[in-house]
Amino acid sequence: MSEIKNFIKTIYKEIPFKKEVFSLLKKIGTPPESVYRHLYFNGLIKVNISNGQSFKIMHYGHRLENEIFWKGLYGNWEKRSMQIWTALSKDAKVIFDIGANTGIYALVAKTVNPNSEVHAFEPFGSIYTKLVCNAKINDFAINTNCKAVSNYTGEGIIYTEDPDFAYSVTVNKNLWVKDKEPIQLNIKTITLKDYIEQNNITHIDLMKIDVETHEPEVMEGFVPYLKQFKPIILIEILNDEVAQKLGVYFDSSEYCFYNIDEQVGIKKTGTLSKSDSFNYVIVPKEKEDYFDEIVI
Hints:
Elements: H1 2-13, H2 18-28, H3 33-36, E1 42-48, E2 54-60, H4 63-71, H5 79-89, E3 94-98, H6 104-112, E4 117-121, H7 125-137, E5 143-145, E6 148-149, E7 154-160, E8 169-170, E9 183-190, H8 192-198, E10 206-209, H9 215-220, H10 225-229, E11 232-236, H11 240-246, E12 255-261, E13 265-269, E14 279-284, H12 288-294
Parallel strand pairs: 3-4, 3-10, 4-5, 6-9, 10-11
Antiparallel strand pairs: 1-2, 7-8, 7-9, 11-14, 12-13, 12-14
Helix pairs in contact: 5-6
């Protein structure tokens, strides 16, 4: 069966003018997700934000780019998280995108706030080259780093099912739940503390952390600058164990927690727990009014 699927994919890849045909189809009407997820291609696409702002990315035939091509930036994929990120990026001066993948969040930040200082981290080598490519396409001065942010600086290992793209990846093999044995890849790691000191970072206003349950280790490596900088953080919380570990760094007397449901919206909670979808926003109490005015 896998040989048949690979043969079909090879044939499909050779079909010409897919981008042009699909672009015309989209003008007529977007097909349902069950259909358009199979209608992918390779090529440059334009991503609209709002008020005439846009950026470009390379579509490599992967799910993330395909979702954005068919449904737009706020149409389906993490749509509420992206709306919040866009709004917060407009005023942020220093922005960190940790677990940047091909750079969508970093590109949005730089588009809506060209004067911002954006730092993006992606340890997966083949994806990092795509991140760099997307920054170059837009002539964006994004500080890109082919490293994983963690609780130590040095060498590390990640596990994935695909050596060319990391939709399923973890730094902990014990968390691997797929039947297929994962591929082991060596990576470089760095703590935020070391990165901040090496690059003379004086503050961070906004941060996105999406590192597949490794978020507590990221925060561990952020001490003591977490309390000094107190950024607003958009963070993935996939289970209650991660939430409990993060609670060590975020006391409810000092922070507000907003659980994001990508389909419904956001709700304020008293504690951290597994997100209704993927993400939470963690906001220092002194920035609560600002957040409510910008986002709520």
